[in-house]
Amino acid sequence: MSVHSLSGRFLILTTVFVMLAEVLIFVPSVARFREDYLLLRLEKAQIASLALLANDMIDAELERELLQNAGVFNVVLRRNEARQLILSSEIPQPISATFDLRDPHALELIRDALWRLWHTDNEVIRVMGNPVREAGLLIEVTMETAPLRAELIDYGLRILALSAVISVVTAFLLFLAVRRFLVRPIKRVVRAMISYAEAPEDARRIIQPTASVTELRDAEVALAELQTQMSGALRQKERLAQLGGAVAKISHDLRNILTTAQLFGDRLERSEDPMVKRAAPKLVSSISRAVNLCESTLAFGKAEEPPPALDRVMLADLVGDVIEAERLACGEHDVSFSEDVPASMVVRADPEQLYRVIGNLARNARQAIVASGEPGEIAVQADETETEWVVRIRDTGPGLPPKARDHLFQPFQGGARKGGFGLGLAIAAELVRGHGGQLQLEDTGPSGTSFAIHLPKVVVELDAAAE
After folding, report:
1. Domains (range + CATH), the chain
2. Run means of pLDDT, 10 residues per run, the chain, 467 residues
3. Which end of the chain is more exposed for a tag (fewer CB within 10 A), N or C?
4. What distance in Å separates the CA atoms of residue 396 and residue 359, rounded to the nearest whole number?
């Protein structure tokens, strides 16, 4: 058992506290012993004086023997308002103090007892008290303090020895109780944590709360909940890793298919049909974005998102492309679009990634309105300050459900619509962070939802960013 262990420290603290309690008991006990000692001297002196009163022909030798047996030098008895010296002998030195035991105060008794223990000189004191059995009005004696101090020391040592034994036995019993009710359950929790750390995917290693102590049981319940959540997160992480591998494979083959489609799109651009000429560039642009998305998905499968290729982007043109694509996707659903983007606003961003961000937000808004079955509106508005560009996407849809709000920007943690995976917001937030900006949910509720994209104008240097 180490002094640094819970059991060792509890044993030491228990011993110390029990000794402290015994010390607090020791002080009044010594005071009481001193009072009893002095009262016994008075009683013996009274018995000796009564023997003399019964026979006033006692010789000097017997008188000395009576005084020696009582442990006093003189005995004075007051009877019938008369003060009478009953027994007397030579006093070796002047009287240094007088103590009245007729109505003593507890603090005075404690003070006098401690003073007598501390003071080593042998003095002569006068002690007064009430005679026993009302044999007079007052009795007083003179006596030495050396025998009193010796008796006090002997009594104190016996009390301290008994206190030490009691403290050791009490501490040992408490030590056994602590080991039984605290240390063993705590060690069980530690063993459960170590076992769980060896194989966190194994649900059988999750601790089962069994402690009888309320606080320990609460700790076990909290640990079990934490282990359950962690096991679920690890299983989900493993599924995500497997899904990422599958998506990477699909994206690889899909990229090849889209490359072929891109070649056919290039041929369509050479068509003389006016409708084809107008739609072909948008088709080629959409296929190019799909190819870039596949390549980005392959990079994401390597646990990394490609850094943005910053360029000067006409925001109004990019927002117009997004809105036109969403209008085509609406079909017959009653969804209107509006844009309030200054025609001359130029932002510094990766055009493909910014298109994905705004497109994901607009697509989520459109799908939410369509799913509600009610007509709605999607508005894209942009402005700028001295330090940043701000793009807001608002809709009049039903708002985000509670699960989506609780796990905002977390993939596979609950989409905003039935059947959704929550990937759109997660991807958008990561792409905005790659630009040094931030995607914020400004408001959501029955009247609609508003997201804000904040893009900084200043490229922060590494040293300044660290500060």
Report:
1. 6-172 (no CATH), 306-466 (3.30.565.10)
2. 66 76 80 88 80 62 77 81 76 88 85 87 88 74 89 87 80 79 81 83 79 80 85 74 64 58 62 68 70 60 65 93 84 87 93 90 89 90 93 91 78 53 75 90 90 85 40
3. C
4. 17
